[in-house]
Amino acid sequence: MGVLPVMICQIIAGDDGLTLGVTMDWTDIGGHLALDLINTVEMRFDPGRRKDGLVDFVALLDWSQTFHTITANEVSALRHTCDVDPVEAQVELVRTAAARDDFYAMLFERKPAATQRIADLYREAVAGCELRPSGDAWEWVDSDLTLATPRHRVVRQMVGFLQRDDLDHLDQCEDARCGRVYLDHSPRRNRRWCVSSECGDRNRSRAYYQRQKRSGRVSG
Ligand SMILES: [Zn+2]
After folding, report:
1. Measured in angstroms, how far is the CA atom of residue 80 from the centroid of ligand 1?
2. Where do the domains of the chain lie, and which CATH numbers do they carry?
3. What is the pTM of this model?
4. CA angle, corner 37, sides to 147 and 53, nearest 5?
């Protein structure tokens, strides 16, 4: 795990001092950025507490920069584009969130329709690209920078993820409400929680309380 997995909310302030939105301090929990896009949804299985970290297009830019799919200069350019065309930016945010949810549905629910949509999104994501050498490897290079660029790049990462040979390590947090996902590369293949200090501690405390309750040491 490359980054300390602590979620901290922060306020993004605009130039005029007004709050534009609330976003997360994004962290690497999943072991691959395509999984950590899924993890922008917290408490997936608890409708009352479910929270989507992609609250607006600026949050998507922040996430994309944190996971190095776009550069700081591209963020600046796209924030300007977002200011010029906030409606299209919102549409792109919704499209990206839908791609994220389809990726979850194909990986963890094996839904054919979601798989088809990811395939369609991938064809769109490479349509405006050139394949160029980059050192010893090759990479897709976008011909234009548009509001769709963050989505195109993460969709390409999704399909790249699907071609790994360790998908048998794909797993999901055992917390009943959490829903975060990750690749379990722990030595004994026994990772149970997305973040031990969050879901692990909460579940251990609950289990301790229930044991105490059963033994009559606590009431209620
Ligand atoms: Zn969890």
Report:
1. 36
2. 9-191 (1.10.3300)
3. 0.85
4. 80
